[in-house]
Amino acid sequence: MKAKFITVEGTEGVGKTTNIEFIKTWLQSREIEFIATREPGGTPLAEEVRDCLLRNREELVDSTAELLLVFAARAQHINTLIRPALERGIWVLCDRFTDATFAYQGAGRGLDKNLITLLENEVQKGLHPDLTLYLDIDIELGLERASLRGEFDRFEKEQVSFFEKVREGYKERVAQNPSRYAVIEAGQALQEVQIDIKQALEKWFPLEK
Q: Which residues pair with 134 in a beta bridge?
């Protein structure tokens, strides 16, 4: 089977970290060679940009500057890690990708989605996930869960109204291209969430006969 690119998306507190571990176990059970990575980040340079983006600071971060930093990290990530792995036949499992940019910087910050699309086309050059698992949750419940992890980063400190817009941004992305997404109700018990994830993985990537 050709190497696949799987992304996991969602707002704060949806359980991405826990469920990515579950997906890793599923891939291992299929004896699939893969790498797990994240955005922003995934390479030493991109991780430096991630720290720059997430760190709490007194200076107001301009939304366009934020967007350009996200795509700078993504360009480095794609060209030095993601695309080379896929070309070698290695699957890629990524915690967030460009859907997050349309949701956070597009819907959340209100930036021009045509600009985001322009950057997407230039940086990705046709690269898109084969499957995106979108973990959906009530925003207040998600933020309550996220608060248990410790101190909030710069994004997590945004108002509930910001995350409501981000959630709507994700839903808009799903509606535009439903064949790429599996929507998972992340407010369920973890066992139920992972049953749904397993069913989605088996639907998108059935065993070859």
A: 9, 183
For 41-70, what is each residue's pLDDT tens digit? 999 999 999 999 998 888 999 999 999 999
| H-only helix segments in 30-153 | 44-54, 63-77, 83-87, 98-101, 113-124, 139-147
CA 127/CA 110 separation, integer angstroms: 24
DSSP letter string over 159-175?
Answer: -HHHHHHHHHHHHHHHH
Helices 113-124/63-77 angle, 10° precision: 20
Q: CB atoms < 10 A from the CB of 114, how many?
A: 9
Distance CA 124, CA 110 (A): 22
How many other C-beta atoms lie within 10 A of the C-beta of residue 110? 10
Query: Model pTM?
Result: 0.94
Evaluate whether 166 touches 107 at the Cβ level (below 8 Å): yes
Cβ-contact 94, 38 below 8 angstroms: yes
Largest distance between two CA atoms of the chain? 57
Instruction: Label residue 166 left, alpha or beta by phi (over 0 means left) and psi (-120 to 50 means alpha).
Output: alpha
CA-to-CA distance for 191 and 65, rounded, in angstroms? 40
Q: How far apart are CA 184 and CA 195, in angstroms?
A: 10
